[in-house]
Write a structure and sequence with these properties.
about 150 residues, two-stranded antiparallel ribbon, single chain, rod-shaped, mainly alpha, about 5% strand
Length: about 150
């Protein structure tokens, strides 16, 4: 992750900086630190874009799962009508059709739940990465300010 590398670079600069005698303060080249902060600001939107792409992928997966579920339901209804017409035994056809519809609904529910869990795990991973980056930025800013 580019942003984390920049934060590591900034941390290295602070760790390698000359210390002020009798204090925990260090002297750093402010221009060098500010350049890295600018680069972080430029690259951070890429991390956010990645999270948006993951969200869009979630929506695509959910839409695809819904489409598959709808197709299964339509096919089940078609088979039900077909059974009624071919067999002429309304009761048997209706029972069989209801079983097919119930199975299709259960399958569709499983597909939707699986897609939602997958999308949620992708979003959680992106959230964790962003949180770690933000925590590291806060920690480094506090160090730069001399806050422990």
């Amino acid at each position: 992750m580019d942003v984390l590398n920049l934060v590591d670079e900034m941390e290295d600069i602070v760790e390698e900086a000359s210390t002020v005698p009798l204090s925990k303060k260090v002297m750093v080249n402010s221009e060098e630190i500010l350049d890295i902060i600018k680069e972080i600001r430029i690259r951070l939107p890429d991390e956010i874009k990645q999270a948006v792409l993951i969200k869009e992928e979630k929506q695509r997966i959910l839409a695809e799962a819904q489409k598959d579920a709808d197709n299964m339901l339509n096919e089940a209804e078609y088979k039900l009508e077909e059974l009624i017409e071919k067999e002429g035994i309304t009761k048997i056809a209706k029972e069989r059709g209801e079983e097919i519809i119930e199975k299709a609904q259960n399958d569709a529910k499983e597909i939707r739940l699986g897609a939602m869990e997958y999308a949620d795990s992708l979003l959680e991973e992106a959230q964790d990465q962003l949180k770690a980056t933000i925590d590291l930025l806060i920690e480094n800013r506090n160090e730069l300010r001399g806050i422990n």
